[in-house]
Amino acid sequence: MATGTPATEIVMTAGGKRELVPHQIILRPLVTEKGMHRSTRYNAYAFEVHRDATKDDVRRAIEELFNVKVLRVHTQNRKGKPRRTRFSSGHTKDWKKAIVKLHSEHRIDFF
After folding, report:
1. Residue 7 domain-assigned (yes or no)
2. pLDDT tens across 33-78, in order?
3. How many domains does the chain have?
4. Is residue 95 part of a domain?
């Protein structure tokens, strides 16, 4: 069953688990100095991903969106940091990070 427009489409599987489309799984690439070093030396790229996404979901989404072959996926659940404004305090949201190692023939160009 699919509802909504393709950009916000959520597919329900037979077990009642929702399946995310690739554009919902990959939220943004993490372009940092460490990430650029990792991409040039080890052909590994970092992405912020949906918190409910599994390693298989991330692998499928990267292969569909960028037309590359993924060797392995490492995920990290990152805790939000405490933040303080003038009179109130809070913290940033928790998020999930995925580091994707590609086959040596493939590259992803962010720039």
Report:
1. no
2. 999 999 999 999 999 999 999 999 999 999 999 999 999 999 999 9
3. 1
4. yes
